[in-house]
Amino acid sequence: MASKLHFSLVSPAKELFSGEVDHVIAPGTEGEFGVLVNHAPFMTTLKNGVVRVLENDTTKMRLFVRGGFADVTPAGLTILAEEAVDLSTVDTAKVDAELEEAKNKLAAEGKEGPHAATLKAQVDYLSDLKSAIVH
Predict the structure, then answer these.
(1) Is the dihedral of CA 18, 53, 81, 104 positive or negative?
(2) Is residue 99 located within the same domain as residue 79?
(3) 58, 67, 111, 118: which has the highest count of C-beta atoms within 10 A?
(4) What sections of the protein cross the membrane (predicted)?
(5) Which residues pair with 23 in a beta bridge?
(6) Residue 47 and residue 43: Cα distance in Å, rounded?
(7) Does position 1 have pLDDT exceeding 80, yes or no?
(8) In which domain, by residue range, is 101 found?
(9) Residue 2: helix, strand or coil by DSSP?
(10) Are 27 and 50 within 8 A, CB to CB?
(11) In this structure, are residues 16 and 24 in contact, taking their beta carbons and an 8 Å threshold?
């Protein structure tokens, strides 16, 4: 019986992580969930949030995902994220600048503008990312 969980996190840009871990906690759309080795199979959607990779009870890695899917099989956990970033590599000043720019564009266009939904989604994503960096 395996004592470690095989975990992979993949975005369209690249594979951010693949390896053996003790525990993964992810932001499901129906609530946060944890996966250990030999977990029952299931599939769920993800919301914007932090995926925590744990060794024993210590968080070893924090990855921010922008939506996606999580698939638990007998082989392990695979997360297919729309977008993902390792929080240890995020430039806070850059996120602040991008957030301010997106808010300004949204304000200039208005709530009924042709790009309002896209701009609102970007503001929400950057706000969630900024919050994850702080916490």
Answers:
(1) negative
(2) no
(3) 67
(4) none
(5) 36, 54
(6) 14
(7) no
(8) 90-134
(9) coil
(10) yes
(11) no
